[in-house]
């Protein structure tokens, strides 16, 4: 049954007919499909936002799930129509960089096995003369249904070397001893600022990560929080207090920094919105340095 789960992510919103049209086309090909709405609120045309969102949810689904992702500013052009398989999951998307985070994970964790890819060469396979502005309905939806039905894209698609797949630029944080420099790459619906700094960057800089064990709001084994985290996290001259949970905040709207569920450092505020701080947003530089340094 897991091979018939299809997740659906788009930037279409829900006020038009686009999403139900795609679902109808899926069900026309595969009536028993279980369609799960991931989100339809991706930032319009933002392939990077789509890639980071996909990174956060795909592995929560059973092996065999098909993840249909349509954020396609190049719809109607000669960009390729792609199916990829990684760790038993299938991804159906335009070849425009949307799968960047999946490709990077395959490189970062080679023991999980290779990523395989195929492309669809016959755009008329499902609908003669598909709409040049709505490939989501006329190509991607039935393609996802066929992948879910057969579990074997190689039976009807052309094998493609993943090295040729498009990528979007996600700058890596720079980590040296006692210093990490990164930037904000995503803003979530709570206004938390997601950075490109991962737990591994703290290890490279010889810093304990903010999710290092300690009693919430107190010292642990006689070690104060400042001793446990002997560094400052600074963005736009605002200092963010490292913590494991929101419960460690002393007051509401205190600037906090924690390793979020995505595995990345997040700048946030207890019952507040870090994105509303003046001058903060995607591209904001974040610096982590030994306490007392500038």
TrEMBL record:
Domain S-adenosyl-l-methionine hydroxide adenosyltransferase N-terminal: 6-152
Keywords: S-adenosyl-L-methionine
S-adenosyl-l-methionine hydroxide adenosyltransferase C-terminal domain ranges (all copies): 183-287
Pfam families reported for this sequence: SAM_HAT_C, SAM_HAT_N
Gene3D superfamilies, per the entry: Bacterial fluorinating enzyme like, S-adenosyl-l-methionine hydroxide adenosyltransferase, N-terminal
Matches recorded under InterPro entries: SAM_HAT_C, SAM_HAT_N, SAM_OH_AdoTrfase, SAM_OH_AdoTrfase_C_sf, SAM_OH_AdoTrfase_N_sf
Database matches in SUPFAM superfamilies: Bacterial fluorinating enzyme, C-terminal domain, Bacterial fluorinating enzyme, N-terminal domain
Similarity comment: family membership: Belongs to the SAM hydrolase / SAM-dependent halogenase family.
The protein's name in its UniProt record: SAM-dependent chlorinase/fluorinase
